[in-house]
Specification:
It comes from Emticicia aquatilis. It contains four helices and six strands. The chain is α+β, with helices and mostly antiparallel strands.
């Protein structure tokens, strides 16, 4: 059986979220879809000034949003009938990123149960160094999509 949602993501590789995302936050983050495979997506974000903290580096909350958004997209790409929502998010912040830097966020489904989906995700810079990594669980809400 073909997964039409996954096919949709594949057809949008190279496009920015500002043009295609149903999520207002996703459009603001404006990541560019780089790679799609079953259970994993890679999205490139460019750090803008409004994404930084007073130290002029990528704000931790924005980093968390990038990671969470990509994991949500990945769960959506599984083609499930219900909307899933994050129930926990554990992040390690390892390196800073500054305005103009590209941040590459890659997700990975670890286990996709009927009710809970466990994931890992990491953000890397253009030198492939890890900026942040996280684990998360998402639960079905029962809301049909």
């Amino acid at each position: 059986m073909t997964n039409q949602v996954l096919d949709y993501f594949i057809s949008n590789i190279g496009k920015n979220a500002a043009d295609i995302s149903p999520s207002a936050l996703g459009r603001w983050l404006n990541g560019k879809l780089i790679a799609v495979e079953e259970g994993s997506l890679t999205v490139e974000f460019v750090v803008r000034e409004e994404m930084t903290n007073p130290g002029k580096i990528l704000h931790g909350g924005v980093t968390a949003s990038m990671l969470d958004d990509v994991m949500g997209m990945t769960v959506f790409s599984l083609g499930r009938e219900s909307f899933y929502s994050t129930i926990n998010l554990s992040i390690d912040y390892l390196l800073p990123a500054k305005v103009g830097d590209s941040v590459y966020v890659k997700s990975k489904v670890i286990r996709a149960g009927k009710t809970v989906i466990n994931m890992e995700c990491e953000a890397r810079n253009s030198e492939h160094k890890i900026i942040a990594k996280c684990t998360s669980n998402l639960v079905t809400t029962g809301i049909k999509i």
